[in-house]
Amino acid sequence: MGLLDGILGSLAGKLLGGSPQPGSGNQFLQLAFQLLQQNGGLTGVLDKFKASGLGRQAESWVGTGANLPVSPDQISQVLGGANLGELAAKLGLPEGTANSGLAEMLPQLIDKLTPQGQVPEDHADLVSQGLAMLGRLGRG
Asked: How confident is the model at residue 45, as a pLDDT?
């Protein structure tokens, strides 16, 4: 679980950035992991972005080069605004804040989960383990 420990710590710290804002890095991570889980894991989410004309962005997140950005509106369109809004509400995040956080978080998360430039065979396990770790952090 060393890989996931590093991912969770790194990404949560980047989103917190020292300035107070609605939501925490852990909430955005939890939202991102839940969306991955509900949409078929890494391959399912990447396929959705490719089918929506955002294949270059999705491939850049997996590849070893720079990550291309995605907008909050694109996040909502690809992952379904209603589903995203429902998950955000469960975490106490306004939908707009969730979309903005995911636009920053999701490319970084996918990049960190694919360190060799390809989707690992155990990607579904990594997503489940990430959610379990975040759940333990939330209770701690």
From this structure: 95
